[in-house]
Amino acid sequence: MTAVDLPDLPRRAWLAVTIERQDLAGTEAYSVTVNEGMARSPRRRWFPDRALALCHAADMADAAGLPLFDRTLCEEVPG
Question: Under a CB-based contact definition with an 8 Å cutoff, are residues 50 and 33 in contact?
């Protein structure tokens, strides 16, 4: 079995739901991180495509009353 290193969850994260594109063992994946406060650890779920990740992120943001940051949009802007 091959070990897969996951990106660290930042402790200083915004109180929000964030969707990001990740490289997971050489495969493109999308992570949704929910950070509800300093007293709670951030939670992350992984998705194979952006549409599923975005639907889950929207559901989590709506349920917790948190803003949603889609960091995948920043990557698509030519610069």
Answer: no
d(CA 67, CA 37): 13
**Phi and psi at residue 2, in whole multiples of 5°?**
-95, 130
List Cβ neighbours of 15 (8 Å cut-off, separation of 6 or more). Answer: 35, 36, 37, 66
Between vectors from CA 61 to CA 33 and to CA 31, what angle results, nearest 5°?
A: 25
pTM: 0.76
Q: Could you tell me the mean pLDDT of each successive run of 10 residues in the chain, 79 residues long?
A: 66 80 92 87 93 97 93 66
Q: Which two tokens stand for residue 68?
A: 């949603």
